[in-house]
Fold these 2 entries.
Entry 1:
Amino acid sequence: MSGQNDGSELDAVAEDAFREQVRTFLEANCSRAGDRSGSIGDDDPEGIAAAKAFQGSMADAGLAGLTFPSEFGGAGLTSRHQELFNQEVQGWYLPTTPLSISHGMCLPVLNQFGTEDQKAQFMPDNISGASIWCQMFSEPGAGSDVASLSTRAVRDGDEWIIEGQKVWTSGAQYCDYGILVARTDTSLPKHQGLTMFIVDMRQPGVEVRPLRQISGGSGFNEIFFTEARVPVDWQLGDLGQGWNLAVSMLMFERVSIGAGSGSGLDADRSPGLIQTAQALGYRHDPVLRQGLADLWIREQIKGYIGQRIRAAVEGGRVPGPEGSLAKLNGALLARRVRDVSLAIAGSAAQAWDADDAGGDRWAVACLSTAGISIAGGTDEVQRNIIGERVLGLPKEPDPYKGAAWEAIPRS
Ligand SMILES: Cc1cc2nc3c(=O)[nH]c(=O)nc-3n(C[C@H](O)[C@H](O)[C@H](O)COP(=O)(O)OP(=O)(O)OC[C@H]3O[C@@H](n4cnc5c(N)ncnc54)[C@H](O)[C@@H]3O)c2cc1C
């Protein structure tokens, strides 16, 4: 990946020294996953403040943005360092969920497609957590078929004026900046008239309305743009290239959900499950043991898929359809984790004492699982991509192929 460090070999001494650096940091700044107490929601002000403070400490310790260039606020290390870091954080609770889109999707896109000025202006604060970013693709009439989106960007001197609506925007209520895809030319076919922009989320023309979910949280939002303004030099990539950049960003998202810590399941759930099963006396239950062993095996497979993707990235490629394999696998694994969790937690997943601060943890995790099969493209969409781009099956018929976006009927 351009600008990111390659995976050059580390000798054993350097590996041990880096592992020790990470362990020292974790012991000083984190709690063990199983010891997590209280139930501060990721979208609560306390959760956001904790994420920012923690990320700031990571940056001070030289552990933030590990593989991103040091001139733009990263640590300038290799993907092997990232792999070692991922291994060391297993079993620790890192309060970084509010930064997952900022770092999993927006940061790689800034690094890959930003101008030198954009990288210098935005990457250091993104990496240190001083600013948080969101991703604005989906609209009420454009989800799976995101290329049909209607939000308009019209040039006005040195600025673009944005009008329209986005939906399902994770974390927008606490974000400083967002990456937006908008239609800049309605006379072209739908994939060709799109451009990507950086948007200041704190301006008056951007209204963010949080949506309440079944889990009780407000993880995502509706966003209304009314004459919102974007300086022309905040355009990302070339005019009309928004679809290509969006596809790359979606692949970063799919890799982040399917092969990284984005699923939220690999880092702390499986060890937590085993501890809980032991504490509840299920240690010798053959069915649950089988279920836990199955999860462990699938986590290993997920790790191998991640390794394969990292190798492709080290070879200089933006993740391709293998990102869809990772995402689909991660979503299916998440559902299996949910089912085993419910079997172990039993009634505790549905009812808890009012004074049990973290008692809702199982219920929230189980209710949130369905979203993993939708975010970043549904399971059906991933299967379509794998069918067409990996297996070479025929594409779905499209009666409007090649037609101007403005000529396609929409409700
Ligand atoms: C937790 C979560 C976080 C999200 N965060 C963001 C975010 O930060 N930014 C953002 O822009 N969006 C975000 N989204 C939105 C997400 O990308 C969309 O919900 C998703 O792409 C599906 O779009 P849709 O909801 O409009 O469903 P639709 O596209 O209307 O799909 C409805 C159903 O039809 C099926 N379907 C549609 N087309 C096909 C097809 N061609 N073949 C087979 N089946 C098909 C789908 O699989 C689905 O089951 C988030 C969603 C969730 C759940």
Note: Strands lie at 31-32, 92-93, 133-136, 152-156, 159-170, 177-183, 194-200, 206-211, 220-231, 235-236.
Entry 2:
Amino acid sequence: MDVLDAIMGRRSIRRYKSNPVDDAKIKTVLEAAHWAPSWGNKQCWRFIVVRDQETRSKIADTLMKIRVENELVENAAARGIRQAPVLIVVCAEKGQAGFRSDGTPVTDKGDVWYMFDVALAVENLALAAHSVGLGTVIVGGFDTTRVEEILGVPDGYRVVTMTPLGVPDHAGQVSPRKDLAEVTYHEKFGR
Ligand SMILES: Cc1cc2nc3c(=O)[nH]c(=O)nc-3n(C[C@H](O)[C@H](O)[C@H](O)COP(=O)(O)O)c2cc1C
């Protein structure tokens, strides 16, 4: 699939078929993630492939409820985590991206660069998944500390995000974007 087709055709998928996902496809999407650019090529990301239903269910329970019309409802991605046969949890090693080898920060943004590097990897993963017929939804609203406990993530690492990976059970809805002109300026901010 052409890269622009993959970018324009990918949608967040929150309902999955129970079909298994073969290991070759999982490897393909992880390779795509791992070939993302990263600060100083430090590759601070770590991927945890979770297949176990009970673990996925426990992780789904950590997703934050969302307020819709004054009612708290389950995060729409929770069902996807329970349904899809695979969950990819993405962690970052702290103090790598954005830091010199002596541990001093290079920029005034401190440790935010691990979020940046992980985001690049996860977007690669989502596009690669779409190109091989699999769905994803990037998940941010969960109890990080609880997920780290469930997965035994050691000090020095942080769980950043996760995505179910499976065969989509729907086409995914198109979430419209703002006009490009609204978010693009020329020469100076705001113009
Ligand atoms: C950092 C980040 C966190 C997100 N967290 C959630 C989430 O917790 N639950 C969810 O259902 N979708 C989540 N999403 C998916 C967005 O809602 C979705 O990408 C957006 O509405 C645009 O739709 P599209 O991905 O289909 O283009 C997240 C996306 C990003 C990039």
Note: The chain has a mean pLDDT of 97.
